[in-house]
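Incident log entry.

Two folding requests arrived from the same account within the same minute. Monitoring flagged them as a possible duplicate submission, but the sequences differ. Recording both here for audit purposes.

Request one:
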Amino acid sequence: MPIKEFKRADRVAELFQIELASFIKREIADPRLQNLTITSIKVSDDLGHAKIYFTLLESTPELLRDVMKGLKHASGFFRSHLAKVSQLRKVPTLAFYYDDMTDRALKMTHLIEQSVLEDKQYTVED
């Protein structure tokens, strides 16, 4: 069985995810970023851009707006840290995106539970 090779961009993305997650927990004092979880990072093949996906424990439009401002404000700080730990000549530009997968999963779970309850009511009435 051949060993699967990973692209350099994938390895850089994995390193960035580990480093950013621990850096935010350890070093960032901004209260806007305290309930933030990095869910994934995608780095372009030329290592010029990194898309950072995150989720929040509680998500309201106002809170999300504040978190995005905090991330934008701290992005230079993040890049300088990533430059130190990655030893890349040029650190990718960072772009932050809210990952709404958790929200969508919760909505789907709620819809399924609601459907099951309706089915139970329908079968009891028969």
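Request two (distinct sequence, not a duplicate):
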Amino acid sequence: MRARIEAGDRDGAAVAFLTGIGTPDQVVAMMRTGAGWPRMCELAPTLVYDLTLTNGGVVPVERLARIAVPTLVLAGGPAPRGPPGQRRPSPQPSPVPRKFFEAVAGGAGPR
């Protein structure tokens, strides 16, 4: 992806990122015809940083499993059912042993 960005191929970099994270080819093709695609290409140079900061998409399971303190996991999207504002054990599988989950309303995270 870095080579595509350096060559000025933002479209190719965005496609490589999306397919690399598992977006089906048909969905990528649909996205490329949408009104938001130019903005995606505009932001493509930042995707290199996203991959760097997220360990290339590899979850460091062993490292996360060693976290010994209670951990608040935040995600965008609708909150799981339960009393408003109450933090609950995470519904998402995770190697973090003592985690609590809070969804940020209006975000675009796991549903």
